[in-house]
Design goal:
The chain is built from 9 helices and 10 strands. It has about 270 residues and is an alpha/beta fold. The strands form 2 sheets. Strands 3-2-4-1-5 form a 5-stranded parallel β-sheet, with helices on both faces. Bound molecules: S-adenosylmethionine (SAM).
């Protein structure tokens, strides 16, 4: 794990356990969990937590850092400091995160950056995120028309260039509009802010998808089509991701097409001269 003699004793590896219990984890992530001195886990539910606990006798559940009235930024800081503090004692620490450990996860990225800056061995093992499941379950190929990902609240409060010719995937839709980082769900007034922003680019009748990946093999995904206008009252869960399929066709870049045609004509002329 740590062959560089200049590195300090102790390491941090943040691994991804995937979305589905037992089915998505990579052999290398599993091996890191099994061989760690201590594992700090953030799992999607209690069953997943128990599954991680079955792989190593020393697993600490970091979900307990989330508390009513406590800003999520404080929770992330606590998770990060907890992992780093054990690493600084010389232990081989694993942070196990459901889905992909680096997709919409703050403490993993920050802790790895700090560990490296302090001279410890640290890295992240990639994995299967909610978006990977979404591509499979919703039949979306991001290469066909392009695809952008945003945290829903950030999209509301900052001016971004929304491209309605491609797919738009919005994470943390159930807390959209919460700038306090405290709320566990927001109501229709906050959701209206998102609909207002989106309705500049999509009609209210545009069909959008509420997506939930199953965490157990026996469950089915939620792939529910509703109109953008209906999003205001839609039943959302903390793990619901909102997908907006394109509402506009691709538009040709006429200037580039013209340049391309000249380029091709020049190539033909050169071929003829040869
Ligand atoms: C803190 S992020 C964690 C994402 C996770 N690391 C991943 O790789 O997918 C939480 C957000 O991920 C999305 N998410 C989490 N679980 C999901 C699921 N089962 N189905 C669909 N989206 C999910 C939702 O947008 C949710 O608000």
């Amino acid at each position: 794990m740590n062959n560089n003699s200049n590195l300090k004793k102790g390491s941090l590896v943040c691994v991804s356990t995937g979305m589905q219990l037992g089915a998505h984890i990579s052999p290398i992530s599993q091996s890191h969990i099994e061989n760690a001195d201590i594992v700090f886990a953030v799992m999607a539910d209690g069953i997943m937590q128990k599954w991680v606990e079955s792989m190593n006798p020393n697993v600490f559940n970091m979900q307990q850092f989330y508390q009513k009235g406590k800003p999520r930024s404080d929770t992330y800081e606590e998770m990060m400091q907890t992992m780093l503090s054990e690493m600084r004692k010389g232990k081989n620490v694993v942070g196990a995160f459901y889905g992909h450990a680096g997709v919409f996860v703050t403490p993993s990225h920050k802790a790895i950056a700090i560990a490296k800056a302090e001279g410890y061995y640290a890295h992240m093992e990639p994995g299967i995120s909610a978006e990977d499941c979404l591509f499979a379950d919703c039949g979306i190929n991001p290469g066909q028309l392009g695809c952008a990902n945003y945290e829903a609240t950030q999209l509301v409060f900052y001016q971004r260039n929304i491209d309605a010719c491609g797919y738009l995937i919005l994470w943390q839709a159930n807390i959209v509009g919460d700038r306090t980082l405290i709320k566990r769900a927001t109501n229709r007034k906050y959701r209206q802010l998102l609909v207002d922003v989106l309705s500049e680019h999509y009609p209210l009748e545009h069909e959008v998808i509420l997506y939930e990946a199953p965490t157990l093999a026996i469950d089915s995904p939620r792939v529910e089509s509703i109109t953008l206008g209906d999003f205001i009252n839609a039943p959302l869960k903390p793990h619901t991701t909102l997908v907006l399929p394109p509402s506009k066709p691709l538009r040709r870049n006429a200037d580039i097409f013209e340049q391309y045609e000249q380029l091709e004509a020049n190539v033909v002329q050169l071929e003829l001269v040869k």
